[in-house]
Specification:
By secondary structure, the protein is mostly helical. It has helices at about 1-25, 35-45, 55-90, 100-115, 120-145, 150-175, 180-190, 195-215, 220-225, 230-235, 240-260, 265-280, 280-305, 315-330. Helix 12 crosses helix 13 (about 280-305). The radius of gyration is 20 Å and the shape is globular.
Length: about 350
């Protein structure tokens, strides 16, 4: 019976994001029915050769499909990183930006827009590089205590986040107000409007590597959640394990932020929702968080492009949805975390 439940659980985790991605192909200002979308996909796979207009094919294959795939990847990466950080720091209020990766990536993107006039690959490179640099600096500050206690890492992340937030303000102050400043502002609010297969190929590598690493060692997060003393008593090298977990979570987060901008709240609320469904065991929590995070961001991205005549930045919508939902979670006091 347990084996059957496990198979159903795994299939559900895989199928739900695929359903959300397929539904997102139907939604938009250009209406498409499921038969047309299936025809276009099967034609592209070489399974059929049915008639479909060039406009419909272009919308599905070149606009909506890469956007939905990238949204699923970004949502899964941000959510699972948040779950990993909450487990490592044993704090339900931390998220994937706790060590300064989002402000660092934001500064890198703003600097690239200022220096290279919105050259896309330089924005990816700078955002990813400064996101990693921010986490390294936070870790070095934490190491000044000679070990890596969670509180020192969090304090290091707070300091580095503050520094990079100030640097973002400095870059915005120096930017051309008629051209560069609007680009920096929109990038910082988060969006998938310019998603392409190139984005998936470039940013998908660190995101997939980071998520695969977290899935592979997810049961170790359970040991860290017991506390450093208990983990060391079981023969676990807690410092090395923290470095591995933080590296994987940072890789996934930095990969997501460099193509989507700063999208808050995903890494904070999705782990809590997953915990309400599957419990605190990270063996099940980590994959469930990835699946629900992918579904969540694809749904929010659809809302961002169909609610109004112009697209709403994702960072605004995730905050509007996430803040009241987090208040609801606080009132529920569920999962033994809150």
């Amino acid at each position: 019976m347990k084996k059957i439940k496990r198979v159903i659980f795994i299939i559900s985790l895989l199928v739900l994001p695929l359903i959300c991605i397929f539904l997102s192909l139907l939604l938009g200002r250009y209406p498409l029915d499921p038969i047309t979308v299936f025809t276009i996909i099967f034609n592209e796979m070489g399974l059929t050769n049915q008639g479909a207009t060039d406009t419909a094919s272009s919308i599905v294959l070149n606009i909506r499909l890469p956007r939905a795939l990238l949204g699923a990847l970004v949502g899964a990466s941000l959510a699972v990183s948040g779950a990993a950080f909450q487990g490592v720091f044993r704090n339900p209020l931390v998220s994937s930006s706790i060590l300064g990766v989002s402000p660092g990536a934001g500064f890198g993107a703003a600097l690239a827009i200022l220096l290279f006039n919105n050259t896309s690959y330089m924005i990816y490179l700078f955002a990813f590089g400064f996101g990693i640099l921010a986490v390294l600096l936070s870790y070095l500050i934490g190491r000044s205590y000679k070990t890596t206690p969670a509180i020192m890492l969090v304090l290091g992340g707070t300091i580095i986040s503050s520094v990079f937030s100030s640097l973002i303000s400095l870059v915005k102050y120096m930017a051309d107000p008629s051209d560069q400043l609007p680009q920096i502002t929109f990038w910082l609010m988060g969006s998938l409007a310019s998603a392409s297969y190139q984005d998936i190929m470039i940013a998908g590598i660190p995101m997939v590597l980071g998520m695969a690493g977290l899935v592979a060692i997810r049961w170790r997060i359970n040991i860290l959640s017991m506390g450093d003393k208990e983990a060391r008593a079981m023969g676990v090298n807690t410092s090395f394990l923290k470095v591995v977990l933080i590296s994987c979570a940072t890789l996934a987060t930095a990969g997501a932020v460099c193509v989507s901008g700063i999208i808050g709240w995903v890494g904070l609320i999705i782990p809590h929702i997953s915990r309400m469904i599957v419990g605190n065991d990270n063996r099940f929590l980590i994959p469930a968080t990835m699946s629900i995070g992918a579904c969540y961001l694809v749904i929010v991205d659809n809302l961002s492009r169909i609610l109004t005549g112009s697209e709403i930045p994702l960072g605004i919508l995730t905050a509007i949805i996430g803040a009241p939902f987090f208040v609801y979670l606080l009132k529920r006091k569920v999962g033994g975390w809150l």
